[in-house]
Design a protein that fits this description.
Blueprint (H helix, E strand, L loop, with lengths): L2 H7 L5 H13 L4 H10 L2 H28 L1
Helix pairs in contact: 2-4
């Protein structure tokens, strides 16, 4: 099924579900059925963008934790 057909039928995943799938994949707990659904109905651009944003946030969190520990 073409991407435009999915959009017309309302079968494309909402943003929050794509973000949740990205967060679960960061933790390594995503199920096979969720992965299949993401590949069939998800927008790759949203997955890539959310993964980059989550990676930057994770790196900033680690950097802040290291600075806090070294300052103590």
């Amino acid at each position: 099924m073409a991407k435009n057909d999915l959009e017309k039928q309302g079968l494309e995943l909402p943003f929050w579900q794509m973000l949740l799938s990205t967060m679960l994949s960061f933790l390594g707990v995503s199920s096979e059925s969720r992965r299949r659904r993401d590949f069939e109905r998800g927008n790759p651009k949203v997955f890539i963008l959310s993964a980059v944003i989550l990676l930057v946030l994770f790196m900033l969190l680690l950097l802040s934790a290291v600075k806090w520990v070294l300052a103590a």
